[in-house]
Amino acid sequence: MKNTSSILFIALLLLSAYSFGSSDSTSVKNADLKIKTIIIDGNKKTKAKIIKQYMAIDTGEVFDSTKVRLAQEKLDETGLFSHVKIHTILHPNKVMLLVVVREKMPYSISSIGGVIYNRKYGEPTDRIWLQGYGAITNKNFRGMHEQLRVSLSLWSIRYLGLSWFKPFINTPYFMRLSTKIGSYPQTTAPWHMSFYNASSISGGRKLGQYSEVASTISGTYKNYTWKGGDGDLYVNGILRKEPPSSADHLRPLMVRDEDWIVTINDTTYEWDGYVTWKIKNYEDPFTEAFFSLVWSTDKRDNDYNPTKGYTFGMHGYTNALWPYEDIYGDKQIYFQINNEFRFYHRGFWKNNIMAYRARSSIKPYGKGNVYSGMYMGNERTLRGFASGEIGSSRFNHRLLFSYEYRFPIYTLPAMRFPWLAWYDNSLNNFIIKVDGGLFFDCGYVWEDLENFIHPSNGHKGGAGAGFGLRFVLPSLKQVVSADFSWPIHPRENIKNNWPIMYLYLDLPF
Question: Is the pTM above the cut of 0.85?
Answer without folding.
Answer: no
